[in-house]
Amino acid sequence: MDDELENGNLGPYADRPRTFPNMRSKAYNPLVRTLNIFRILMGINFRVLLILLFLGLGVVFYIGARTSPIIVFVFSVCIMSFLLSIYLTKWVLSKDEGPPEMVQISDAIRDGAEGFFRTQYGTISKMALLLALVILFIYLFRNLTPQQESSGLRRSTSAFITVAAFLLGALCSGIAGYVGMWVSVRANVRVSSAARRSAREALQIAVRAGGFSALVVVGMAVIGIAILYATFYVWLGVDSQGSMKVTDLPLLLVGYGFGASFVALFAQLGGGIYTKAADVGADLVGKVEQGIPEDDPRNPAVIADLVGDNVGDCAARGADLFESIAAEIISAMILGGTMARHCKIEDPSGFILFPLVIHSFDLVISSVGIFSIRGKPDSSLKSPIEDPMAILQKGYSLTIVLSVLTFGLSTRWLLYTERAPSAWFNFALCGLVGIITAYAFVWITKYYTDYKHEPVRTLALASTTGHGTNIIAGVSLGLESTALPVLVISLSIVSAFWLGHTSGLVDKDGNPTGGLFGTAVATMGMLSTAAYILTMDMFGPIADNAGGIVEMSQQPESVREITDVLDAVGNTTKATTKGFAIGSAALASFLLFSAYMDEVAAFAQEPFKQVDIAIPEVFVGGLLGSMLIFLFSAWACSAVGRTAQEVVNEVRRQFIERPGIMDYKEKPDYGRCVAIVASASLREMIKPGALAIVSPIAVGFLFRILGYYTGHLLLGAKVVAAMLMFATVSGILMALFLNTAGGAWDNAKKYIETGALGGKGSECHKAAVTGDTVGDPFKDTAGPSLHVLIKMLATITLVMAPIFL
């Protein structure tokens, strides 16, 4: 079969079985060894494996017990969530895969996704090892803070700890991405098969598949940081005579956040370029030029498009949410330790470990929300299709209510102190502010991207007068959509800061110190339902793939109607998750910025509490930060454009050279399009990713040299602070615009495809397809990558702060 595909010797469809090319990459790379560990473990005798597992758990719980009972609680909840995710996996995989033609299509998608994943993460792992060596070299020759010197911490120890944390964060982020992709390529065909029976069953399978990925990703982020914290606590003898204080320990974890951000950035860039280049190429030639439906088997780019949903939306989003949670936990732990030290709190462990407990409860309450979505015994194809968004919203509302309750209990348990008996209540209100902010972000994004609401319908109406008016309407919608989220973020930051500021916690001079920690608690509140939000996000690409499998296997129209409804809702849930992610990125970046200023002050041994942009060099640093956002976005979008041009030319070539494709007499060469987007995305992701990593380091080092010769010893650190500040603000606005505009364009097209304004194939529909192709790199490449970029800039400045001084 492979030889026939390469030579193009394909007979008529009627004379051949409907098989698809094996697109599994044969290239070998370092990540294959990591993935093969699981296969090796499966080959070990079950009793031996069980003994090893219990020994490992025993060591983990022993270290946790020597650290704090809170760590033992966190370990217990995470392990229970992993067991629950195993149950969800078995439940999903127990569902039937449907007829052979569905299975063949699913196998092709799975082979393409796993092949690209191995190659992409092999490239990322090599870059991560190179960067780890750079970090090791820098830390071996950097200065230590007075606190670290007094505790007896040596440079070599600090260097190896940071590198180990960086590599562990990178590894866990990669595993999080793999888990997201692994479940999606196996659940898609089962959702397709369930759609032949009922919409509710298909919805339940998609949600539980997404729930498995969400529980693993969040659980891994929490337990990874908890294991690092406990290991360093025991190894360094923290809080013993002449050793490091527990309040300084969280600073050693910043490498973990940087490693997670590093992998997530390249995963999002590579996956985003892959999925959108294939999507744009398939739509422009298939829908606009040839007039064939979406996911039609005659389109040579259709398999590449379906593969892209998994590597771009599932694998990349898993890594994205993983690093979001990791960055927020570490920044909150740093601020909690700093505040506890300034306030002389008798037992600071509650303030430091509070973020781990909140996300442990997140696993519990999100599990309840996931299991609240059940199938109905009397549902069938003949029964009316329920609104999937309403069902998902009920689960989210339940999760929100439980989150409020558990957050209040956690603040009373961990944040109560005799120095300020009512402080815990103020911090509980800060958490409530964050929860309300999350709900507001979900609602705002849904309003601007769901075709049940006016903005998307107005955009669809603009398509009736042509392609140009569609583009104008989409751009204006995206620009307008930045206003409400910014107002919500601003209100939440100010409210949380003042609730913390008035909590009653003061330093030795009587100055209030709880403001920044209040903002940290609000960020935790916003992410306290992260597992359920990620479940809704994973639901989207799974439903999209299911619709493609149904279309390619030529199932009845009634089945396609069900998957179309799920797909449209999936577009909205993906958009809401991106809005949620950028909101949490804004709050987390504010915390990381504060942690950076504290770290600079510790190294410089002088106060560093404000950045004066009236200083010309500092203002230039801000301009460079804003420029970085625009240049990064431009390179990401142009990468999609160049790759899409290759796909368009290839698809056109096949339609010209193989005219029998349109009559089902010749089969398209799907493998050729997969090869084009795979190689191009790996090549194109390097330049914007390198820009993001090198820019803050280069700017800080150059201005450090300038400051040395001009007598301003903190100039490098101040310029980097301005760069970080301006990049965060510009990045938030740009990401909001790109995500919302892209999602609105996509759902305007979906709205017309329901039969409105002329339906499929009309001139209005062609204009909407043009808007959708413009929005594709916005919402799935540049926009999501900015979430990661903002937080990675903050973590890289934390890790590299010593070279700016």
Task: Please describe what this structure looks like.
With 805 residues, this protein is mostly helical. 78% of the residues lie in helices and 0% in strands. The chain contains 24 helices and no strands. The protein is globular. This is H(+)-exporting diphosphatase.
Weakly predicted, low-confidence segments: 1-35
Strand content: under 5%
Shape: globular
Helices, by number, come to 24
Q: SSE order in H/E notation?
A: HHHHHHHHHHHHHHHHHHHHHHHH
Roughly what is the average pLDDT, rounded to an integer? 83
Structural class of the secondary structure composition? mainly alpha
What layout of secondary structure does this protein have?
Layout: H1 2-7, H2 30-43, H3 46-67, H4 69-93, H5 100-140, H6 146-150, H7 155-195, H8 199-235, H9 254-289, H10 302-343, H11 349-371, H12 388-414, H13 423-449, H14 454-462, H15 467-480, H16 483-501, H17 515-526, H18 530-552, H19 557-604, H20 616-657, H21 670-684, H22 686-710, H23 715-753, H24 763-800
What's a concise summary of this model?
The chain has 805 residues and is mainly α. The chain has 24 helices and no strands.
What key phrases describe this protein's structure?
78% helix; globular; disordered N terminus; mainly alpha; single chain
